Amino acid sequence: MIFALVGNQNCGKTTIFNQITNMNQHIGNFPGVTVDIKIGEVPNLIDCEVVDLPGLYSLNTYTKEEVVTKKYIEQNKPDVLINVIDATNLERNLYLTLQLKQLGIPTVIALNMLDEVEKNNGYINIEKLEKKLDIPIVPITTVTKKEVNNLIQISCKIKEKYNHTKNTNKSDVTEKYKLIEEICKDVCKNNINEKSNNKTYKIDKLLTNKYLGIPIFIIIMYIIFYLTFNVIGDYLSNLINVGIEVVSNFTDNLLIEHNVNEIIHSMIIDGIFIGIGSVVSFLPIIITLYFFLSLLEDSGYMTRIAFIMDKPLSKIGLSGKSAVSILLGFGCSVPAILSTRTIQSERERKLTMKLIPFMSCSAKIPIYAVFVSICFKKYASLVMILLYIIGAVIGILITAYLNRVTKKSKEDTFILELPNYRFPTFKNTCLLMWNKSKEFIEKAFSIIFFSSMIIWFLKSFDENLYLTSIEKSLLAKIGKKITPIFIPLGFTDWRIITSIITGISAKEAVISTLSILTNTNAQLLPIYLSKMLSISSCISFLIFILLYTPCIATISTIKKEFSLRTSIKVAINQFLIAYTISFIVYNLSNLLFNFF
Amino acid sequence: MKITSLDKIKDGQFCQVIKINIDSEIKNRLLDMGIVTNTKIKMIKKAPLGDPIQIYLRGYNLSIRKSIAEKIQVEVIL
Fold this sequence. Notes:
The complex is a heterodimer of chains A (596) and B (78).
Chain A: E1 2-7, H1 13-21, E2 38-41, E3 49-52, H2 64-76, E4 80-86, H3 90-101, E5 107-112, H4 114-119, E6 123-124, H5 126-133, E7 137-139, H6 145-161, H7 173-187, E8 188-189, H8 194-207, H9 213-257, H10 262-280, H11 283-299, H12 301-314, H13 320-329, H14 333-339, H15 346-355, H16 365-375, H17 380-405, E9 415-417, H18 426-460, H19 474-486, H20 494-502, H21 509-518, H22 525-532, H23 535-547, H24 552-561, H25 564-595
Parallel strand pairs in A: 1-3, 1-4, 4-5, 5-7
Antiparallel strand pairs in A: 2-3, 6-8
Chain B: E1 3-5, E2 14-20, H1 25-32, E3 40-46, E4 53-57, E5 60-64, H2 66-69, E6 72-77
Antiparallel strand pairs in B: 1-6, 2-3, 2-6, 3-4, 4-5
């Protein structure tokens, strides 16, 4: 049996889904956090699945993510629809309910957020509402285990009792809303969300203030990046570094003690430990960034960013919703590109997608950290922030150009619900950080592990598979062949070139590759690299990394969401843009240094 | 009784929808969101740069661009 969770955006479907399935999907306070279908099993019930669908306002689908839901309902024919309703927003939520009722699929209502209604001194007569709608209602407050168990039980029973037929008699929108108004007048007492509304207006007085709104946004972003790179992340990273060294030394001694074969020893210590260790030590910085991004999302501030940034973004052909995708891009391009599904106009959606690779993703943080410390020791965190700004500015200029040369569409617009502010829950924030750490570690032990092994293998053996010194290795030979292409940018060492290439598999691989090739950990890496690169080529390298071809995961997401052609175009364009700008930067800075 | 377009309503003022003069998908979305004839709308504020606007209707807050609001005909409620 399949139960599908259907409801408006941001009404709490994912919270219910997580509670039913004991899974840990991320929940936000932003319309469209779930843009893909998620399936989970119902424990203790054989052959029972719950499906979490992207939210939709209406069956007259409008955005990509709504189409996903509609298609699912039409094609997979779930046995029961669980219509999740935000009780604080009854009127608009019931509109979808009336539409669902016409589908002829057994439906149960999960009337969610009743605790909020109570906090607002509101009241809903559930029995009356049940009768009026002729759909069973399960009241839900804080989504407890008991409540969802009750929901599942009732959903199981309704399948047998159900006797409605498909109703093709389509009453129009105005009629439906009229009916809803009557129902609400009858079952609701007091304005059910007045209190929380007023609180939200008070916060908005500051956050979307005519004069202060945009400065506050900029300050918040600055604080986030500053804390991430300078204060919290850096401190934790140093701690992890110490930990990794202890484990690595311990293993090293253990291997020596037991007289383990030298090649295996080298593979474990010089390949795996250095490769993975160099990346893992940056985990805290990345997690800190995600922590702040999740606060923006969960609190509801993200929608305000969309609200205040819509006007400037519309100038370059984007929508306020693009601001959200752009910010998510600072975390990882893949979810950022998926989040463009909430953008209705295909043109705006494509332009947003093309801008995302310019937003430096968190996987590049280790690279910046290492290279910035070579040449800008004192102002490291400032230079890091500057890099983000450079990426964004170049991206915006290119988007502005693309906006000029592509035809405007009638569907370019901005319609976005502004949910009331919510206090981010501790549990949800921890869940997110846990999930992101897990993802990162999984990546470190899959992609980074394999690339580390391959790099170690190629740097340790020659073409006849004899152990050899690194300068005579297979990798050196391949790397040296490609090197001439990058000489105009100031990269003359083949090890640098190799790291650029492995960086296409995953950006984390750049540092792990360099660590393996120089046989040092991330802390000592800057010292070795400073011998390979002049300050000009170091700056050039930073710019190149900032802009060049996104990782495989991103390219394949673009392929999935748009087309193969688009994905190849993005990959090539990013490379060319990076190459051109690095070339200019390298020569300019050389000129400057010669001058002074 | 004054008839005007939604974008002209002052902050904090109420109005009632008469008609939406748009002929694209956008109109259907506005209808779905509950902006139908006779719907009561409160103008909350404009974004810092003057566009988009924030309105309150049917118990929730919605943000739409001015270019859309211009095409929603409303009657001011005093």
